[in-house]
């Protein structure tokens, strides 16, 4: 923490000046402040702040109040409140970013399904995960949920846990031609092409067709049953169930749907791929001319080819951007951050070890015999500082540089475990290390603050992966 009032060293110096005699109170406050310095998560920070406030109240109650003590406690109270606001803000932000904790009850809301279906209709290239569960019993209903963030497997698991259904399906979904629900199935279930209509109809979205395909795009089942439309439905959907029985009317409806979305999509593409956009714009004008001349089938074929080309170009652009960004940008940045953090930790550990060894040597040669046990204890503190934290960070760095997904997961966990072990060591021995820093033998030491700062660098570097 940057505020001096929240620093353990600042408190110890103040307690020494005030000659506070209750060592229990002094150590309890020091421990709470050390916990705050070592806290890596907002929740841990808030717990440490609560402990500091509790100890401040105990000090105020137990120690005779002086002008200096009153001023110190006031400054401490203001520092705690300031830090609490920051930690609460970070905790709230972290909670909002944790998509995996989205309750299944929100995914079951028909309004959520309708929103996702409309977004897919607006963008023909948009892909979302779908999860589907059969009716859990004879009185239940099948459930469909869409999510752009959760995987299909995770979505399906959430739905099963919530509905208690035993069977279902999951995969990827999108909307084709404005009113055709496409489902790329990773885990199938019998009758899906018919069953999925009920939850779609229940949320108020109208579809003309449900199409099931595999990961290669091969269609293996489809259902052409039309939905009866109500007044006020978007123009790109079939005008009526009767019209749906007329192939020409169906083609006209599909052409109209394409013409409502393709011009805007081509304009958006012009920035990233101007040549492709110009070509597709010419093809679009040609399709419009065919439609005006009465060749609806030819116009529809041309528009469908444009939509396919648009989707492929967008996917290609995204893949190219990712390929450029990952090895040259993001991965390189993470590798550098991990190496810098490991070097920072190594440097501060080396300095601390050298200082502690110097203090041990001084105690062994100059201190009274009764302090030899103290020297042995200080020597024991050196061993954990020569641990495996930097090795774990560098192993993670190597996995990141190889873009080894499985290796990254294992190395990250090992690095986090080593970081936790180092944090526990520093927390448990912070008072002893502070006493070493203020030793009366002239050995200059600075251990806790530099190691804490290095540890925060390591934590940030690991968290970025």
Secondary structure topology:
Blueprint: H1 8-18, H2 23-38, H3 42-62, H4 67-97, H5 104-107, H6 110-122, E1 128-133, E2 143-147, H7 152-163, E3 168-176, E4 180-187, H8 192-195, H9 197-203, E5 209-213, E6 219-223, H10 241-244, H11 247-269, H12 274-292, H13 296-366, H14 372-382, H15 389-401, H16 405-428, H17 430-437, H18 448-463
Parallel strand pairs: 4-5
Antiparallel strand pairs: 1-2, 1-3, 3-4, 5-6
Helix pairs in contact: 1-2, 2-3, 3-4, 6-9, 11-12, 11-13, 12-13, 13-14, 13-15, 13-18, 15-16, 16-18
- The string of secondary-structure elements, in order, is HHHHHHEEHEEHHEEHHHHHHHHH
Shape summary: elongated
Instruction: Specify the number of helices.
Output: 18
Low-pLDDT runs? 227-245, 322-328
Structural class: alpha+beta
Number-wise, the strands total 6
* N-end to C-end Cα span: 24 Å
Strand sequence of the main sheet, in spatial order? Answer: 2-1-3-4-5-6
Compute the gyration radius: what is it? 33 Å
Percent range of helical residues: 55-70%
Query: Mean pLDDT, nearest integer?
Result: 79
Task: Note the beta-strand portion.
Answer: 5-15%
User: Main β-sheet, in a few words?
Assistant: 6 strands, mixed
């Amino acid at each position: 923490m940057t505020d001096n009032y929240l620093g353990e060293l600042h408190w110890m110096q103040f307690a020494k000046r005030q000659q506070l005699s209750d060592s229990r109170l002094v150590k309890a406050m020091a421990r709470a402040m050390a916990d705050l310095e070592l806290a890596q998560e907002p929740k841990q920070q808030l717990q440490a702040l609560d402990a500091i406030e509790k100890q401040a109240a105990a000090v105020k109650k137990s120690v005779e109040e002086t002008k200096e003590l009153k001023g110190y406690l006031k400054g401490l109270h203001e520092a705690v409140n300031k830090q609490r606001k920051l930690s609460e803000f970070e905790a709230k932000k972290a909670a909002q970013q944790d998509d995996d904790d989205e309750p299944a009850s929100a995914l079951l809301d028909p309004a959520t399904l309708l929103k996702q279906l409309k977004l897919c209709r607006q963008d023909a290239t948009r892909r979302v995960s779908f999860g589907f569960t059969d009716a859990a019993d004879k009185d239940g209903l099948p459930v469909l949920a869409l999510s752009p963030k959760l995987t299909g497997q995770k979505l399906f698991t959430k739905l099963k846990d919530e509905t208690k259904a035993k069977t279902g399906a999951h995969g990827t979904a999108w909307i084709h031609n404005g009113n055709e629900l496409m489902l790329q199935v990773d885990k199938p279930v019998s009758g899906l092409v018919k069953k999925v209509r009920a939850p779609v109809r229940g949320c108020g979205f109208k579809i003309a067709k449900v199409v099931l395909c595999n990961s290669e795009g091969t269609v293996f089942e489809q259902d052409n049953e039309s939905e009866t439309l109500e007044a006020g439905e978007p123009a790109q959907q079939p005008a009526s169930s009767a019209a749906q029985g007329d192939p020409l009317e169906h083609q006209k409806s599909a052409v109209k749907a394409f013409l409502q979305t393709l011009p805007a999509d081509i304009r958006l593409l012009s920035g990233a791929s101007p040549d492709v956009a110009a070509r597709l714009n010419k093809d679009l004008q040609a399709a419009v001319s065919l439609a005006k001349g009465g060749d609806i089938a030819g116009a529809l074929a041309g528009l469908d080819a444009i939509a396919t080309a648009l989707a492929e170009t967008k996917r290609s652009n995204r893949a190219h951007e990712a390929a450029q960004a990952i090895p040259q940008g993001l991965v390189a940045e993470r590798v550098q951050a991990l190496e810098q953090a490991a070097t920072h930790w190594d440097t501060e550990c080396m300095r601390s070890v050298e200082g502690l060894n110097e203090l041990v040597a001084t105690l062994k040669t100059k201190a009274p015999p009764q302090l030899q046990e103290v020297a042995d204890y200080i020597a024991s503190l050196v061993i954990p500082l020569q641990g495996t934290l930097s090795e774990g960070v560098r192993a993670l760095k190597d996995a990141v540089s190889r873009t080894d997904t499985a290796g990254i997961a294992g190395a990250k966990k090992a690095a986090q475990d080593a970081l936790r072990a180092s944090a526990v060591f520093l927390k448990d021995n912070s008072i002893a290390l502070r006493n070493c820093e203020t030793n009366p033998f002239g050995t200059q030491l600075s251990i806790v603050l530099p190691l804490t700062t290095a540890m925060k660098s390591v934590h940030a570097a690991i968290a970025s992966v």
